[in-house]
Amino acid sequence: MPLREFFTRTAPDVAPELLGCLLTARSEEGSVTVRITEVEAYAGARDPASHAYRGKTARNAVMFGPPGHAYVYFIYGLHYAVNAVCMPEGTGEGVLIRAGEVVDGLPLARSRRVASRVDADLARGPGRLATALGLTRELNGTDLCESLGALTLEPGKPVAGELIRSGPRVGVSQAADVPWRFHVHGDPTVSPYRRAKPRKSASDQGV
DNA sequence: TATGCGATATACT
DNA sequence: GTATATCGCATAA
After folding, report:
1. Any atom of strand B under 7 A from CB of A46?
2. In sequence order, what are the residues at sequence separation of 6 or more whose Cβ sits closer than 8 angstroms to the Cβ of residue A111?
């Protein structure tokens, strides 16, 4: 199946099949490749946890574009995260790449992630993965299907079906019961599960 | 392990 | 103007 067609399906269908695939970021500094070990599906207009739930905006426009492109955005004032856009143009579905194992460009990844004491932590979590790959908003909209592009995805060794586990998504408060997080069972690079922390409203914080 | 906090783009009032 | 966000890290215990 051509890579483009691979992405022209629903996010929950695509997500588990992305496990084991290789994501490579190329820049003047060099390139880093990770083997994907954890993902989450976000199903656009039918998913209240999706950035695309309330329709198209300047921020999420890429999610409504053609499949197989990268939706890169800035979150919490200091982190980047990357999604692979799914479904035909106009739909707004995507798969968040949450974690991976660095399999190439280890020295460069380490230099970008000085806080990591062990290599398994280099891309363990969406913000860490983005940092290890050196992602910035300039890569928003990049075509993942173009070989040797700035940010590309390619098939890897398939992960054995019995090693693929699913569960609730991390950090989402809406639709917290839908098992749309998929990961490789037992892999040390998978991020620890954390339920969405109910955030106190400002009005409760006194003065 | 558990909790607090940072630091900013974006969307909504 | 203001609340919230697909989070990471230091600190405490």
Report:
1. no
2. none
